Amino acid sequence: MSRERPRRVNLPPVEENIVKLENVINGGNYYGAQQMYKSISARYSSAQRYSEALDLLHSGACLQLKIGQVICGSELAVLFVETLVKGKTPYDDDTLERVRKIYELFPRVTLPQHLAEDDDVQQLTEALGAAKTRVESCSTFLKAALRWSAEFGDHKAGSPKLHDMLAEYIFSESPELDMTRISYHFVRSDDPEKFAATLVNFMGKCYPGEDDLAISRAILMYLAMGNLKDANCLMDEIKKQVESANLELPMSDLVQFIIFLLPTLERDALPVFNMLKVNYKPSIDREPVFNELLDEIAEKFFGVQRRNPLQGMFGDIFKMMG
User: How far apart are alpha carbons 119 and 259 in whole angstroms?
Assistant: First the structure.
């Protein structure tokens, strides 16, 4: 079977189209420009001139986001990543910076506070809707970038830098904080210090009883990946930052369990591990996923096989993150 050859198409240098489409956007025809970005970039891709298609889409995504056209900008951002995949572009620092530039142009808007009148309630409703759109749009873009980085980079779970961006944006922009989702991405990033700062920040915003759950969940998620080093680093940083902020570390039974668990995993101490699970069962049962995380930890650190390997933490966690 003969290999399909790219169609020969007479296309101008991409710089000409970049300038032309900038003028369309500057003239206020955002939708028209959007359709042109899509069709023209597709021609470059069909001709396997992927570098030029990427330049065009990158320019368009950045311009649309810069002027607050989030949906248009995010669509072009996703097309940019899809073109990275089509062109089999390897994950490297230069391309990561291009992704980061797009990410940094996603708007960050403070939600209005202290609203009372009907008009203000409507304003808040609209602001919440816009915030949800921003988070969903940025998440779609970065998840696509994570899949590209997993396929063409060295990290099977995707670039830690991209996980860091996604966790940071979800935390800073989501109207309702989902710390499980945020933690999922932070434990796959490479910055436990920033993760600790995020958790300490969350402690000042959450309902009573949620702070110890968030801290414990984060530690257990690290440990379920076999990452004892960053689990210890996270706990040390939380203690340090809590003290620096003149706050108090929640010393519930659940946090006590985590404090005892960390040194237990540094030695061959399966009986102690099992004893801790029994003694702190009521606290562990506060969140069902904790038992699944602990089963995964037992397998990672002590070689304890799960009774049913097809049912477990990672399946449930991925469902929550989807």
Answer: 49
pTM over 0.70: yes
When pLDDT is averaged across residues 88-109 and rounded to a whole number, the result is 97
**Lowest-pLDDT choice from 1-10, 29-38, 142-151:** 1-10
Q: Is the pLDDT of residue 314 over 80?
A: no
CB 33 within 8 A of CB 24: yes
Contact yes or no for 109/45 (Cβ under 8 A): no
End-to-end, the C-alpha distance of the chain in Å comes to 39
CB 213 within 8 A of CB 254: yes
Residue 119 has pLDDT above 90, yes or no: no
Arithmetic mean of pLDDT, 230-257: 94
Are the C-beta atoms of 198 and 166 separated by less than 8 Å?
no
Say how far apart CA 260 and CA 160 lie, in whole Å. Answer: 28
Residue 1 has pLDDT above 50, yes or no: no
Spatial separation of the C-alpha atoms in residues 65 and 60, rounded to whole Å: 8
Higher per-residue pLDDT: 207 or 119: 207
Which phi and psi angles does 126 have, rounded to 5°?
Answer: -65, -40
- Cα 70 to Cα 4, 56, 62, 64, 133, distances in angstroms: 37, 17, 10, 7, 8
CA distance 187 to 163: 8
Q: State mean pLDDT over 110-137.
A: 77
Q: CA 234, CA 212: separation in Å to the nearest integer?
A: 14
Q: Which single residue is written with the structure tokens 């002027």?
A: 67
Residue 313 backbone phi and psi in degrees, to 5: -55, -45
- Contact partners, residue 163, CB within 8 Å, separation at least 6: 146, 157, 185, 186, 188, 189
Element (H, E) at 311: none
Burial class (CB within 10 angstroms; exposed 0-12, middle 13-18, buried 19+) of 31? exposed
The span from the CA of 50 to the CA of 85, in Å, is 10
Torsion angle of alpha carbons 3, 147, 292, 315, nearest 10°? -40
CA distance 312 to 224: 11
Specify the pLDDT at position 17.
96
